[in-house]
Request: fold
Amino acid sequence: DGGITQSPKYLFRKEGQNVTLSCEQNLNHDAMYWYRQDPGQGLRLIYYSQIVNDFQKGDIAEGYSVSREKKESFPLTVTSAQKNPTAFYLCASTSGGWQNQPQHFGDGTRLSIL
Amino acid sequence: AQSVTQLGSHVSVSEGALVLLRCNYSSSVPPYLFWYVQYPNQGLQLLLKYTSAATLVKGINGFEAEFKKSETSFHLTKPSAHMSDAAEYFCAVSYGSARQLTFGSGTQLTVLP
Reply:
């Protein structure tokens, strides 16, 4: 079945450490997104990518980095510069074309600080 | 700029009662609107989307939403709540060439027996 796979499901970060969250999709979608979810705040856009080797900052990109070397993969690195990384991270993708195409979501990675 | 407001962070209904979750949007262009549902520790699942083909949109699990341009609203309803409907619901509006989504802050629905 086609879908989006995020790994790991739970991740712990030590002080000063960078961690990378994986997102893989087999839907042949062009665009991919990373969101951060905090209780009571909905989802906020971190980064997005419309094509391979190109990506743009979202609303809360500081302290994060991404790459898009392959169409199916869009990993997110949470750097040590992100001072409050504890959150639920969701990856999404959508096909090209009309703006009413919905985004499809993975099951998320929950990041906590040790 | 696009924005979405969901009135009521928590809504409780009795099983079998009407579900009404409110969503108002702000958009400078014709909006593309979505409702998603999230169960604990899971991703978001699409309930329905507004495509401008019809103002009353039917989705999965018996949910529907009505687009009212004059009220800038896209409220979600279900005639009869089921225990399995207990979840968090998000309204979202799509914008930009990359179809980014702006989400409301969510409404946690509790269904009482």
The radius of gyration of chain A is 13 Å. DSSP finds no helices and eleven strands in chain A. The CA atoms of residues 4 and 25 of chain A lie 4 Å apart.
